[in-house]
Amino acid sequence: MTRVDFYVLSDTDSDNRTKLVCKLAEKAFRHDKCVFIHSDDAQLLQQLDDQLWHFRPDSFVPHRLLGSDEIANQIDSDPVQLSCGEPGNDRHVLINLASKVPPFFSRFERALEVVNQADNVRDAGRDRYRFYQQRGYPLHHHKM
Prior knowledge:
By secondary structure, the protein is α/β, with parallel strands linked by helices. The chain has one domain: Rossmann fold. The protein has three helices and seven strands. A seven-stranded parallel sheet has the order 3-4-2-5-6-1-7, with helices on both faces. The longest helix is centred in the N-terminal third of the chain and has 17 residues, at 14-30. It is globular and about 35 Å long.
């Protein structure tokens, strides 16, 4: 069963949210886990693509931004993928930035939800929390 972790930031700063996503992706990569960062916002994924190259001077997170149609049957050597589409079957960790729970989340060992206090992000995060909770998924909460 997929383990679900909620990382809750105490502010509304979207940059802090994306920095945390970069740190989580880096940590998973360092633990030899293939990561899929999912969002329904292509502009946010583009921002993350840029940020993953330089969020820390001593960090290197190999990644690739994919088009939504590019991933359906693809198994890729890039440890971190970013997409609005479906993941391949080789991914271990989902970082979900979409407003809803993606239908493919249960394919992953872990699903990470990064939530800040911006009204729309916080409220959608609460809805996703209830979704997982009602279905009996193991939930873990991390105040950042």
